[in-house]
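User: hey, got a sec? need Sulfotransferase folded
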Amino acid sequence: YPNPIEKTSERYKETLPKLPKAKGWMTEHLVRYQGVWLTPNAALKGLMWIQDHFKPRPTDILLATFPKTGTTWLKALIFATVNRTRYGFSDHPLLTTGPHDCFPFLDAYVYENDRSFDDLEKLPSPRLLSTHAPLTLLQTSMADEQSCRFVYICRDPKDVLVSKWLFMNKLRPKQLPPISLEEAFELFCQGISHYGPYWDHVLGYWKASLENPEKILFLKYEDLQKEPFAVVKRLGEFTGHPFSVEEESRGVVQEIVKLCSFENLSNLEVNKTSVQKFSRDIVVDNRHFFRKGQVGDGKNYLTAEMTQRLNAITSEKLHDSGLVF
Ligand code: A3P
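Assistant: Yep! Here you go:
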């Protein structure tokens, strides 16, 4: 194939009709590819493209997340941490550019975009790229110890479900009725959720992080809320940009936390009025990425039975993993 994308297009065309389908959260149904529920277009194509072509570099920082666990927040924090000597806090790019534009999705980099494979190759190191893909779906070369490093964030499933349900309803075309909480709950519990099942996604990165903590930094949204300074310092160390004593005494960590806070980012003009163009077809208002930004809000929506059932699934799935929410 003269163009590497063509090879993947062929594989995609052959694979798609064979995949199991389920009702989606939007107009599109979801398909199950290698055990993971994906949108048949952007997500599946993006993943196949990564599997076939992506060449990781040891300096790459991959932010891996399940949607609605804190992607936007971590994009801002990692970007600000890694680039802190390049930009001042008073005219920082994050004040005028949405976090998603500062830190592109690898999954949507080439497919559905006007960018090319060469553009990705030309990005200077260290590249900051994000992905929603579960670790099991990434090519083995990315799992190699030296190939690239991952920052992963997870969040209490109750808050993930509610955040996702409200987000999806904002994105659903106006002519469709909103998806009910009951329906969203059933889909989520069955694992039928973009890049789901959620628990498998979390466990994949969790187990790998235990085996190789140098390669995968595993974080929790709840810890980031509780101890943002400690987490940002860990991010600095992990990404190879540790904070010096002098920087700490100048309050650089605090500046980063403040810059990336929900309060600050959600009130910026760019995040209130601009849109994020992930691909030709996927365009989302930046403001939808900022809703409440709190721990435990899921409980305000879920019934006692829903909370109980979700907690039961979580304890069963995580029972011997050492991970708790
Ligand atoms: P809520 O819907 O619970 O408010 P993602 O970025 O992965 O799509 O996740 C979105 C969730 O993260 C939303 O949760 C959103 O409000 C929250 N969020 C976005 N930016 C944040 C920030 N700077 N600090 C804390 N939470 C943030």
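Quick note: The CA atoms of residues 60 and 124 lie 10 Å apart. Let me know if you need anything else on Sulfotransferase.
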